[in-house]
Amino acid sequence: MTTQQQTQTPTGADEVADAYVAAFRGGDLARAGELMAPDMVRVSPLEGTGDAGEIRGLDAIMANAARLTAEYDIRGVDVQGPFVSGDRFAVRFAFDQVHVPTGHRADTVKMCLYTVVGGRIAREEVFYHNEPQQAG
Q1: Between these two residues, 45 and 128, which has the higher pLDDT value?
Q2: Which domain of life is it from (predicted)?
């Protein structure tokens, strides 16, 4: 693969999906951000953001991510996918994290459904699923 091929911006949902997942697996969050549209919409009702969990704009989405992770030490992220269909793709994330104030370690699992428009992620819908915790 030439240098020009490596730096080309992906256009189709399959290319965007592959680049997005590769960025997360490689810990390159800046590259993942480059694949998102500046006016992207994130829908995640369980994150307590109001407006039925809808956040508009990449800056607001990044600020929300910082708010959600401020008290956590992320120890690892397992990424599964992408699962592509037409102009959309899904990715499953499992975060191994520690709540710093309490020392409580837990996994947070979510499935994200992305919509690609014009070679960028225009919409993200987040569905959380955490396995039940076993009693002490």
Answers
A1: 128
A2: Bacteria
